[in-house]
Specification:
This protein has about 375 residues and is α+β, with helices and mostly antiparallel strands. The protein has helices at about 5-15, 20-60, 70-85, 90-95, 125-140, 165-175, 270-280, 300-310, 345-355, 365-375; strands spanning about 100, 105-110, 145-150, 155-165, 180-190, 195-200, 205-210, 215-220, 225, 230-235, 245-250, 255-265, 320-330, 340.
Length: about 375
């Protein structure tokens, strides 16, 4: 009766190094050749699998755009995604490099694009998460966490005020609540507001938009409507909130404008709603409020796309061009004078201005506009 095959391999393993001579030669040679063949096959399969993976990566890899504007848009998309993956210490360090003002009561930072202020579903990292780390970087390891004084939307850039203690934060929040803080935003709009300066005083309410995807948006809830050429008062919605925005066109072309906005009230998405639904001039990159019924990328004219160097299929990546450019805080605590906080425009905003042929206002014009606003108050 033939011995089972496995006995030879066991004997070879036991006899390895035991000087079994001919038995080792007879058994080990066929075994080693089989093992070598098996190793060769496995290595070949591994090499083929690695080549296939590399080919798949090369196929899925997006070609690098030669258009500088397109490259910048892609950079912003990558930067926004990276903000959610960076370590809190790295983010806090980046925020320290954008500090606009610091004293014993306040720290004022330049909020970057794409960074939420508060946590929520799907938010991995936000400004409120790094306030303890930011405080320690500025005042040492024993420093108490900084406190938020107000908020900005995730896509909005610019001036943001933090306080060292809760009492000071409450005082600044009260200034915002009682409308004592002068807030000025700059926005690039699709189309030009008419007239070039004015006040939008239309209440805002949140409603469910009926479309392919049911979603909620802020929208206008006007108190009056036109009926046969006459203005007729309509029933007021109980959920509507008073919303007032002062605006002025700083520079314009046929199809776009740089607009300064001064919100008198502070309703959610107020500036975006008043511009899009009130003046029919949505903010460039506002994919939520450019159309009421749809959640889709902003539709842009052929001329605007050509100036930006983009195709409509890439319009979804255009960032919201809304920047908190200036805050004026009244005297508070030991400070006897108003605190004027100005934040420079982000790089993508400046590039869009240049591409669209919009001019940056000079300092004298800003001062004249500010004097007119103060005189109108």
């Amino acid at each position: 009766m033939a011995a089972p095959r496995w006995r030879a391999s066991v004997l070879w393993i036991w006899g390895n190094g035991q000087g079994l001579g001919s038995l080792f030669s007879l058994v080990s040679k066929p075994f080693c050749s089989a093992a070598a063949a098996s190793t060769s096959v496995n290595a070949q399969r591994l090499a083929e699998r690695l080549r296939a993976q590399k080919q798949e990566q090369d196929t899925n890899k997006k070609p690098v755009s030669t258009n500088p504007v397109q490259r910048r848009v892609e950079e912003i998309v990558r930067f926004t995604r990276q903000l959610q993956r960076v370590h809190p210490n790295v983010l806090a360090k980046a925020l320290t490099r954008g500090i606009l003002h610091q004293d014993n009561n306040l720290v004022v930072i330049n909020k970057p694009y794409g960074l939420p202020v508060h946590g929520g579903p799907g938010v991995q990292l936000c400004i409120s998460d790094v306030l303890p780390i930011l405080a320690k970087m500025l005042h040492g390891h024993k420093a108490e966490p900084l406190h938020l004084c107000h908020r900005l939307d995730k896509e909005t850039t610019g001036v943001m005020v933090l306080a060292w203690d809760k009492d000071m934060a409450h005082q600044v929040q009260e200034l915002f609540r009682t409308r004592q803080v002068v807030k000025k935003y700059w926005a690039i709009t699709v189309r030009v507001p008419m007239p070039s300066a004015g006040v939008v005083d239309i209440p805002i309410v949140e409603k469910e938009a009926q479309g392919q995807q049911q979603h909620h948006k802020m929208t206008l809830s006007p108190s009056y409507r036109m009926d046969n050429g006459k203005m007729v008062k309509v029933r007021h919605s109980r959920n509507a909130q008073v919303a007032v925005t002062r605006y002025q066109v700083l520079s314009s072309t046929v199809s776009s404008a740089l607009v300064e906005l001064q919100p008198i009230t502070g309703i959610k998405h107020q500036l975006r709603v008043h511009l899009s639904f009130g003046l029919d001039c949505p903010i460039l990159g506002d994919h939520k409020y450019s159309d009421w019924n749809r959640l889709a990328p902003q539709k842009l004219s052929v001329g605007t796309l050509k100036k930006l160097g983009l195709e409509q299929s890439k319009a979804r990546y255009i960032p919201l061009h809304l920047h908190a450019q200036q805050l004026i805080l009244p005297a508070l605590g030991s400070r006897k004078e108003d605190l004027n906080l100005v934040c420079k425009l982000p790089r993508f905003f400046v590039c869009s201005l240049r591409r669209l042929g919009l001019e940056m206002p000079n300092q004298d014009q800003n001062e004249n506009n500010e004097a007119e606003h103060l005189g109108a108050q």
